[in-house]
Design brief:
By secondary structure, this protein is an alpha/beta fold. The chain has a domain at 2-219 and 363-459: 3-Layer(aba) Sandwich (Rossmann fold), CATH 3.40.50.1820. Helices cover 31% and strands 19% of the residues. The chain has 15 helices and 18 strands. The strands form four sheets. Strands 1, 2, 3, 4, 7, 8, 10, 11, 15, 16, 17 and 18 form a twelve-stranded mixed sheet that branches. Strands 5-6 form a two-stranded antiparallel sheet. Helix 3 packs across helix 4 (182-198). It is globular, with a radius of gyration of 22 Å.
Length: 464
């Protein structure tokens, strides 16, 4: 089915030339409420109209590289979800600014600099995608409908128009990146750009590759939660052996008549009830999270849905990680903030970090897109926080191995400041896989220094 999707995508892109849209026009942002003084980096925000009659208005944040923006790579970043705002990736993961990790006191949250921002080595476009995410909006009810393939096509339309307004970046290397559910769409977006370049539609985009963190890739990856839990010492030898024997590796679509397997899986879930999926070492808080994540269109269980993370070591002034997350709601809904960001009045009500969308998940596996991009010679970096149970490093390793490329640099540690930061392996298809030791579902949130070092080395074509 996935190969058919690629063929269909190629046919559509060859036959259908999209209507020309007016150039995007962004506005510089010199000051942000909550941050003292002028911003020490160059920020631009704006909208780009895509789709029929520009009924979809995509909002973006563009931050120039703090090193050498004339030649440094440009990274298009899509936060996961689908429906999680680009502001979340900017603030909590890889952007140059974040919130001071203190409890909300009723005033506007204080913003501080992130010394390990990925903008140290690249210019980044943080895009609210698909429509309905963050500050992106639709002009008509029909335009609110979206899907994996449509979202990916909108991303290409956005890039094409963005480069019309920013021609000085056309020669810079371009990478497409994201984490979590973006693992389904980033390879498709990259494929579209590659095909458009091949058939010479519009301007040539200097595409070099893509990167993904703890990426959702195929439906069966949840089967790897059990071997992950066993390897992490969360279940007993006896239960693991019984699960393997009774379920034969299939822990999701279980035959109702297979009572021993059902009982073992029930025991597994009971044992892991108190474990946080995004980072298994962090305890659960005892209050509800305002915005649960969705994976593969299925709502997480109530236990997972309403509990978030506590991280006293990294956020010592907070009881829970959600106390840090909640600051972005107060900040993004402030009138002065929206004015500073150039948000169009009346387009968005309450801002949501991860919105519920009218979205169809039509692509069940992005593996064929990885295979296609590899055959075209594009580079890729796939990294996994090794304490993430939501998308385990075992499931990511499994689909990478399924590509059947030979190993050119076998499993070894990679280090930062003479300390092991994770393990890595490189393949003949120019794909690099890396674990980030001690990190969770969005690795840069937990290990910022290490992830910046990883990115810098990879973008410089150096071994990790």
């Amino acid at each position: 089915m996935a190969k058919t999707e690629i063929c269909y995508l190629l046919l559509v892109l060859v036959v259908v030339e999209l209507c020309s849209q007016p150039a995007a026009a962004g506005s510089p942002v010199k000051f942000l409420p909550g941050f003292q003084g002028p911003l020490p980096f160059e920020l631009e925000t704006g909208y780009v109209g895509v789709g029929d009659r520009e009924d979809v208005q995509l909002f973006y944040y563009f931050i120039k590289s703090e090193s050498n923006p004339e030649t440094d790579p440009v990274l298009l970043w899509i936060t996961g979800g689908p429906g999680c705002s680009a502001l979340s990736g900017l603030i909590y993961e890889i952007g140059p600014i974040t919130f001071e990790p203190v409890e909300y006191n009723g005033s506007l949250p204080t913003m501080i600099l992130n010394p390990y921002s990925w903008t140290k080595v690249a210019s980044i476009i943080f895009l609210d995608l698909p429509v309905g995410t963050g500050f992106s909006y639709a002009r008509t009810p029909a335009a609110l409908q979206s899907s994996d393939l449509q979202e990916s096509d909108h991303a290409y339309q956005f890039l094409r128009e963005w480069f019309v307004d920013h021609p000085e970046f056309l020669r810079n290397p371009l990478y497409v990146g994201g984490d979590s559910y973006s693992g389904m769409v980033v390879p498709i977006i990259t494929q579209i750009i590659a095909i458009k370049n091949e058939i010479e539609i519009k301007q040539f985009i200097n595409l070099k590759g893509y990167l993904l963190g703890n990426p959702s890739t195929f439906e069966g990856e949840k089967n790897y939660e059990i071997p992950f839990a066993y390897g992490m010492g969360l279940i007993s030898d006896e239960l693991y052996e019984s699960l393997k024997t009774n379920c034969k590796g299939e822990y999701l679509n279980i035959n109702p008549s297979n009572t021993p397997c059902l009982q073992d899986v029930q025991t597994f879930h009971k044992l892991l009830k108190g474990i946080n999926n995004p980072h298994i070492l962090e305890p659960k808080c005892k209050f509800f999270s305002p915005r649960p994540h969705l994976l593969f269109g299925q709502r997480r269980s109530l236990d997972e849905k309403f509990h978030e993370l506590n991280n006293p070591q990294q956020l010592p002034a907070l009881k829970c990680r959600t106390d840090w997350y909640v600051l972005c709601y107060h900040w993004a809904d402030d009138g002065q903030v929206r004015e500073a960001l150039n948000i169009r009045k009346g387009t968005i009500g309450k801002w949501e970090r991860c919105a519920s969308l009218q979205f169809q998940k039509t692509v069940m596996s992005s593996i064929p897109y990885h295979a296609s991009l590899s055959s075209k010679g594009y580079r890729s970096l796939i990294y996994s926080g090794d304490h993430d149970k939501a998308v385990t490093f075992q499931s990511t390793q499994a689909w990478i191995k399924s590509l059947n490329y030979s190993i050119v640099d076998d499993w070894r540690p990679w280090t930062v400041d003479n300390q092991v930061a994770g393990y890595t392996r490189s393949y003949s298809n120019r794909m690099t896989f890396a674990t980030v030791k001690g990190a969770g579902h969005t690795a840069p949130e937990y290990k910022r220094r290490e992830c910046l070092a990883m990115l810098k080395r990879w973008m410089s074509y150096k071994p990790l």
